[in-house]
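Researcher: Next entry in the queue.
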Amino acid sequence: MTSLPFHVIFPVKTKFVSMDVSHPFKIIAHRGVSGLFPENTLSAICAGIALPSDYVEIDVRLTKDGIPVVIHDRNLQRTAMTNLPVHELTLEEIAHFDAGSWFDPKFEKEKIPLLKDVLEVCWNQTGLMIEIKKCPQPDNIIVNAVFNTISCANSLPIKLIIGSLSHDTVSEIQKKSLEIQSEIPPMGIIEKLDLIDPSIKIGIKHMAIWYKLITPSLINLLRDEGIEAWAFTVDDPKIACFLASIGVTGIISNVPQRLMNLSHI
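Model: Structure for this entry, 265 residues:
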């Protein structure tokens, strides 16, 4: 297992917010603690575990040779300063790129992690939310690759959720989960309201919804359907508290440390 000492995780002074919250919620570190560390790197992920957040969220794509790696964008332009697409690079090729210097030169040794390596860090009580990005490869190929990586891992977080913004990918996750009788819940990640009804129809019971779409009536509808709703991406503690007050049970944030002194699940 891989872990980092706490003083390495938080080398800067962090300001925490104190606020009375009568409706508790889970805290999910978006791409790790991506406000303080380069997103989707082991440093950012381990920072989320060290807080501890309830979950850490990561993004997954496939390399040319079919290996799940942790990166958000379709290409490496923003985080590794090259325009090459992830799906056109082998694992050996992608391993050479610096995934930290774009954020701060002190992170120049950060690499694009393998999903396998992320699964095998020391997660303690923190869960992992995997977002499968829409890729050029067929949905069943990437979904099978993610589930196979999970099944072969030497250790796992105690809580896992797998979701996607793509309804087709979520449907494939649901299909695979039922096929292998997995206890890992599929999650619909919703940035358009017209994706909610199709997700309900295929039996999705967990949704992460763009916070600007969320209203009390929507949360009531989802509650009546037995669906747990999280919100993304929320960095303002006041907005987080409002969403919790209307029934949102999880807040996905780039700066989860700002929410840590709020009363949460």
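Model: Residues 2-20 have pLDDT under 50 and may be disordered.
Researcher: Noted, moving on.
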